[in-house]
Design goal:
Elements lengths: L38 H13 L2 H8 L3 H15 L4 E3 L4 E3 L1 H22 L6 E6 L6 H13 L2 E6 L14 E5 L8 E9 L1 E6 L5 H4 L3 E3 L8 E4 L18 E5 L2 H9 L5 E4 H5 L6 E7 L4 E8 L5 H9 L5 E4 L3
Parallel strand pairs: 3-4, 3-5, 8-12, 9-10
Antiparallel strand pairs: 1-2, 5-13, 6-13, 6-14, 7-11, 7-12
Helix pairs in contact: 1-2, 1-3, 1-4
Amino acid sequence: MDETVGGTGVTAGGTDVPAGAGSVPAGVRGADGLDGVELRHLRAFMAVAEERSFTHAADRLRVGQPALTRTVRALEETLATRLLDRTTRRVEPTEDGRRLYAELAPLLPRLAAALRAHGGQPVLRLGFTSLLPGACAALNAEFEAATGAGVRLVRRDTPLAGLDTGESDIAVLRGDALPDADVRTRVLLREPRVAAVGRSAAAGALARRRVLDWAELADHPLVVNTVTGSTRPELWPADRRPRLACTADNFDEWLEAVAAGHGVGVAPQEVAERHTHPGIRFVRLKNAPPVTVRLALPTRGAHPLAERFFGWGGTGGAEGRGGG
């Protein structure tokens, strides 16, 4: 089924497909100003606003960057306003863009749920970042068998794994829940941490160790994934914290920074076991606090299947808005 806004026909998957007969070209506005706005325009804008990059947003939506650029430009022309400020290094929403993003964030999930309700087999979109915990495989299978619904996995390397942009109905998140996020969370499981050490000469001594203590990492510079990572200097005591060596925007950048010898990294053990890198050795950590893995769904307007999945699994109780 096609999902459209304003009556034009384009597929809902975010690809840049030409509109069918009777569609209104970008820039032509009807009485309500929406005749040229399509769902793909809104999803494209939301992705770029979230990623702050046309390149990363194109990868996320699985479209070509030129097509994505045209799609966003068409939305700006239709609305007769600039939504994004583009520079050679970064993309930032304008004031109008920030307002539109705030308005669309809660609306798109509800629109997607309403459209899917009239389709075939119901599908729950389960968002995750970097790597889905292995325990979720059995949970997903049990849920599908009990409900007859399908579970579609959606990887989004953003803090809320697509919940805020309507790309997922429920998400598996690692680390502390965002206190200002409009989500409900519950603890799913807890994972041990391991140290990621580069094999370069600078970190060679650490790479030869079999075990490291959490406290001694404070003596080494730390590489942090600021978007989806679960380890920050603030986890150590205030009077003894590691120096922040550099940051990364996604897991792959984080791996390369550690391999390049910029600093030591810390990751959940399961993530480390399923990601290998020739320039990195993962070393067991003792006395490290575990990584909390949570299920999260929107506080309001959650998909009925997401509500059922939310209550299906988890070792802890619901934590309320923003988690804890």
